[in-house]
Design goal:
Elements (H helix, E strand, L loop, with lengths): L1 E5 L6 H12 L2 E4 L1 H13 L7 H9 L14 H10 L3 H16 L4 E5 L2 H5 L5 E6 L2 H14 L6 H17 L12 E4 L5 H21 L1
Parallel strand pairs: 1-3, 1-4, 2-3, 4-5
Helix pairs in contact: 1-9, 2-3, 2-4, 3-5, 7-8
Bound molecules: 2'-deoxycytidine-5'-monophosphate.
2'-deoxycytidine-5'-monophosphate (DC) binds next to helix 2, helix 4 and helix 8.
Length: 212
Amino acid sequence: MIIAIDGPAASGKGTLAKRLAAHYGYRHLDTGVIYRAVAHAMLSAGLDLNDEARAAEVAMTLDPGTFDDPALKSHAVGSAASVVSALPKVREALVAFQRQFAAVPPGAVLDGRDIGTVICPDAEVKIFVVADPKIRAQRRALEARSRGEAADEAAILADILARDERDQNRSVAPLKQAPDAYLLDNSHLDIEGGVRAAIDIVEAVRAGRQRV
Ligand code: DC
């Protein structure tokens, strides 16, 4: 079974996807990390983030072994990822890797922006996770402070809104809810509540399929 989890930045979809994968014994792929890895490599090499040919080359030669580099988690790399991910040739270069990951039995949970719409349009379960931007900014600020970093909530909110705008309005694979995706608004749910709601959705889909 393939479970597609999409949603905007800082919506909590990453934690949710990881927990769902653990619950069902599936593999998990945070696809944002792939775009972050491309952006990080471009920044480290001093390359222009909008240089599509170079960015596509970087994407084609990515080493998944670098995906757990903590440097990929920074805000700056996230924003840069939003820029490189709007380049069609970069997205094209990364499709096969994501689809191959998803196809390995017994199942996988992929989280990103275009999993239910482009990468795995036939995923058995699609969940579109949203949360109020102000709440997303508060959560990001709390996370940063818990890592001992300073956090300016207003700046984080501005960054989140700019990222939403870029991710939703790019011409290729924009962030949008697939017509057959369930909407999960976790603005007023804690992590456990969100995980329970997601499991309920998966179970409802499974039960529906068994009855057919
Ligand atoms: O989820 P994240 O913050 O790690 O994602 C970073 C950026 O990567 C995000 O702003 C847009 C892009 N991205 C994408 O275009 N498609 C995906 N499937 C995942 C992320």
